[in-house]
Amino acid sequence: MNNKQKHIVDRMNELGALGKPFSFIIDFDFEKPLIFEDDSTKLLWKTPQDCNFISINNHPESISWEVSPVSFAQYQQVFSQVQQHIKNGDTYLLNLTQPSRIKTNLNPETIFHRSSAPYKIWLKDRFICFSPEIFVRINDGIISSHPMKGTIDANLENAEQLLLSDKKEIAEHSTIVDLIRNDLSMVASDVRVDRFMYIDRIKTNQGDLLQMSSQISGTLPENYPQNIGSIINCMLPAGSICGAPKPKTVEIIRNTEGYQRGYYTGIFGIFDGRNLDSCVLIRYLEEKDGQLIFKSGGGITFLSDCRSEYNELIQKVYVPIT
Question: Is 254 within the bounds of a domain?
Fold first, then answer.
């Protein structure tokens, strides 16, 4: 644990013991974590239950949205490296991501306010995230996680049945559910799968998607608020956006992807003094050097087809505006 990581975890534990609310953002590598003990105009957020801003009606009549992903040849190169690691037995599921450049007539403020998502985060001058994926929730001592793995175009005929019967997607999803069960078992007792492979529909400017999730939960010790930072730290990075086995897979990701994820695939959360809600920072648009960069990806297994995975990476480059 580096010094900054230890400082943030200790401070979260202190605030939890005091019953003081705070919000936080932790990047994928846990190198630039942020904690907000007072409401900040730099960080606007919305969860399914609450938000800290008043929405602005700033809607252009039409949307232009031009995506420039990495080339298929570039993607194929890193995909092949991952497949070699899978053949070597180093990993059996790895979430491979890449950046895409975006040109649009929407500014970051408009994208944030106009988007519709369970979780919305805008760290001004840094990134916008409109995440559909819960990381963990804690309600009166019950901790639950909702990993999201499995995506399909909702407009395909029998799309839901196709997703639920896809061998590659089922194997990938089952692996992550097992990984999250193990993660929760490190901090909670009586860990169980409450719902397995349920489907959510997500509306986007590029057409609707179906996403597959599961819900796993457990019971925390009575003194969990004073260990809230340690509990979160123990489960990072989120299993759904790295893979399994986690430590080796994270090492391969850092050596293979060829770019910095930064806050993408990290987490955002709010703590109200006793309960916590958090999301995985996916569906993520970064402001960098006057450009907009969308980061996206998907899980790779030995069953993966390179062209299909490349198409899924592009399919996930959207804003949830209809």
Answer: yes
The SS3 of residue 214 is strand
87 inside domain: yes
Buried b (16+ CB within 10 A) or exposed e, 8-33: bbebbbebbeeeebbbbbbbbbbeeb
State the residue for tokens 């839901």: 160
In a domain, 321, yes or no: no
* CA neighbours closer than 13 Å in the CB half-sphere of residue 1: 14
Q: Does the residue 322 lie in any domain?
A: no
The span from the CA of 318 to the CA of 206, in Å, is 6
Give me the helices (H) in the chain, please.
3-18, 72-88, 108-114, 159-164, 167-185, 228-234, 246-256, 306-315
Q: How many domains does the chain have?
A: 1
State pLDDT tens for residues 206-248.
778 898 999 999 999 999 999 999 999 999 999 989 999 999 9
Q: How far is CA 230 from the centre of its chain?
A: 20
Identify the domain containing residue 268 by its residue range. Answer: 3-315
pTM more than 0.85: yes
Query: Which residues make Cβ contacts (< 8 Å) with residue 243, sequence separation at least 6?
Result: 91, 92, 93, 94, 95, 175, 249, 253, 299, 300
**Do the Cβ atoms of 67 and 73 come closer than 8 Å?**
no
Q: List C-alpha distances in Å: 89 to 19, 92, 118, 171, 244.
A: 45, 7, 37, 16, 11
Max CA pair span of the chain: 53
* Structure tokens that stand for 181 in this block: 């069960």
Distances (CA, A) of 55 to 46, 112, 119, 138, 247: 10, 9, 14, 27, 40
Residues lower than pLDDT 50 in the chain: none
We report the CATH number of the domain holding residue 269 as 3.60.120.10
Distance (Å, whole) CA 49 – CA 225: 20
Find, among 306, 285, 280, the residue nearest to 296 by Cα.
285
